[in-house]
Amino acid sequence: MVSDRKEMVRRSGRLKTGIQMPPGLGAAPEPRADAQRNRCALIVATREAIAARGLEVSALDIAKAAGLGVGTLYRRFGTKEALLGFVVLSFYDELCVLARECMEREDPWDGLVEFVMQLAGAHRDNIGLAEVTAACDEPPTPELAERTAAVQEAVIQLTERVRATGVLREDVTWQDIMICSRASLDTDHCLGVDAGPDGWRRVITLLLDGMRAPARTPLEGSGPQVRL
Q1: CA–CA gap between residue 195 and residue 123 (Å, rounded)
Q2: Mind spelling out the 3-state secondary structure of 1-34?
Q3: Cα 109 from Cα 213, distance rounded (Å)
Q4: pLDDT tens digit string along 140-187?
């Protein structure tokens, strides 16, 4: 199961996200109570399905998990892709909320560590999120592009807040920190060594400690770049 999850994540850089926005979202009249319950059930089922199986989950599987017929999914959201898009946006919104909470920590370094650990854990636990954040193509919708920029800006602010304290080595960029958060995805086994269930946390901690000033070894290469 773990190897299957990793293989899906490793393929994610080549996947097309295939997500849309629900037509007329927010403009329709207030739905009936049963329609609202069905909509909420579909959203919850989609969140769980994306996390467990990624963006290739079928409309039928989502509807079954919600205890509804697939026709209800199409009536509520128009297409499966629109439902996926709505849920993916909610993941990004949660990352922005997390970043704001971390910026309120008294110690800027503690705030940065908390954000990276939480994002690393989300990448590990949510296959769909790992697929979307790995995509280097232009976001498929203006809404997702806006959320991507918002998350990037939040990480920039977290990074500069720490840099102002002198704790962060000068050659570390916010892009380095974003890439670091994906190090949780392939840390389970190596040459007969089993990292254990929390081995990824040790790896992230080692990486974060390597970002602290003073720098002992110059970084090689030009560093990660923004491609969106």
Answers
A1: 17
A2: CHHHHHHHHHHHHHCCCCCCCCCCCCCCCCCCHH
A3: 12
A4: 788 988 999 999 999 999 999 999 999 999 999 999 999 999 999 888
Cα atoms in the 13 Å half-sphere on the side-chain side of 66: 27
Q: What Cα–Cα distance (Å) separates residue 95 from each residue in 18, 67, 99, 103?
A: 21, 29, 6, 12
Could you tell me the pTM of the whole model?
A: 0.80
Query: CA 128 to CA 61: how far, in whole Å?
Result: 15
Domains defined for the chain, CATH in brackets = 2-209 (1.10.357.10)
Q: Are 103 and 113 in contact (CB under 8 A)?
A: no
| The residue type at 170 | E
Residues 6 or more apart whose CB falls under 8 angstroms from that of 6 comprise: 185, 186, 188
